[in-house]
């Protein structure tokens, strides 16, 4: 009997040892599985993080690309405006040179002297505009800088009108400004304002008839300053007005100026 008990005890001890070994192996497998799971989770976390970074970078690249395209579109638009403004001065100078040559050939010295004075004024205005544009272009540094500041609207508009008076004089156009308060202070980018305002005056002179009239009216309230340009020109058709604010739209030249 004693021997049977010893055998049973030995068997039981062996079973316990086997169970312990199995339990130990199971714990080792659990730990291994947990480690593998943690590694996988860490890998997925890093992968997701890198994916998020890539998405953000891609979005940033798209934004920068869109900004660059808009910048190029705006710059091209401004350059077309600037070239248009300069062209009308150059056309006037060229036309005056032909008239001057004709006057000299017919020995009309006094008329030639008057015309030469006008041409000199136009040349000086053109030179001043070119200098301003070149200085503005050099400041851009491959960007389209918007540098607003406070400026007196009267001094700004008077300076531009002074440059255009010789051009208006060629067509006997009266160019004047009406200010409720010439000392009104406005917050704007001076050079961009000059580009826009010159273009408006340029077109007003170009399309106004001989002996016409161009009036600039400036008024303000607590919130804004309003600048109106009134002229006796032919105006703009509704069809062109519908596309004039769309930089990507192509406006076909359908009306010739009379300068």
Shape: rod-shaped
Number of strands: 5
Radius of gyration: 40 Å
CATH class annotation: Alpha Beta
Structure description:
Strands 2-4-5 form a 3-stranded mixed β-sheet, with helices on one face. The model is unreliable at 254-259 (pLDDT under 50). β4 and β5 (225-231) form a beta hairpin. Helix content is 68%, strand content 11%. The chain has one domain (60-241): 2-Layer Sandwich (Heat Shock Protein 90), CATH 3.30.565.10. α1 runs antiparallel to α2 (109-140). With 259 residues, it is mainly α. The longest helix has 104 residues, at 2-105. The chain is built from 5 helices and 5 strands, in the order ααβαββαββα.
Task: Annotate the secondary structure layout.
Blueprint: H1 2-105, H2 109-140, E1 149-152, H3 153-170, E2 174-179, E3 185-188, H4 190-207, E4 213-220, E5 225-231, H5 238-241
Parallel strand pairs: 2-4
Antiparallel strand pairs: 1-3, 4-5
Helix pairs in contact: 1-2, 1-4, 2-3, 3-4
In short:
With 259 residues, the protein is mostly helical.
Features:
259 residues; mainly alpha; Heat Shock Protein 90; 3-stranded mixed β-sheet; two-stranded antiparallel sheet; 5 helices; rod-shaped; disordered C terminus
């Amino acid at each position: 009997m004693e021997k049977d008990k010893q055998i049973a005890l030995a068997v039981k001890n062996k079973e316990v040892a086997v169970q312990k070994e199995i339990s130990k192996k199971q714990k080792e497998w659990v730990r291994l599985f947990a480690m593998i799971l943690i590694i996988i989770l860490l890998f997925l976390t890093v992968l997701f993080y890198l994916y998020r970074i890539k998405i953000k970078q891609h979005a940033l690249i798209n934004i920068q690309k869109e900004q660059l395209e808009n910048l190029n579109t705006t710059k091209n638009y401004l350059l077309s405006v600037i070239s248009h403004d300069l062209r009308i001065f150059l056309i006037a100078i060229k036309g005056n040179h032909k008239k001057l040559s004709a006057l000299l050939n017919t020995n009309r010295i006094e008329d030639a002297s008057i015309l030469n004075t006008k041409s000199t004024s136009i040349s000086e205005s053109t030179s001043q505009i070119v200098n301003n544009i070149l200085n503005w272009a050099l400041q851009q540094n491959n960007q389209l800088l918007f540098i607003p500041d406070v400026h007196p609207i009267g001094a700004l508009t008077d300076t531009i009108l002074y440059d255009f008076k010789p051009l208006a004089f060629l067509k006997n156009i009266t160019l004047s400004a009406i200010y409720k308060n010439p000392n009104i202070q406005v917050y704007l980018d001076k050079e961009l304002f000059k580009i826009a305002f010159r273009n408006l005056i340029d077109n007003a002179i170009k399309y106004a008839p001989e002996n016409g009239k161009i009036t600039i009216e400036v008024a303000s309230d607590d919130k804004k300053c309003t600048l109106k340009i009134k002229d006796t020109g032919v105006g703009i058709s509704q069809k062109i007005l519908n596309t004039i604010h769309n930089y990507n739209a192509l406006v076909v030249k359908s009306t010739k100026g009379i300068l």
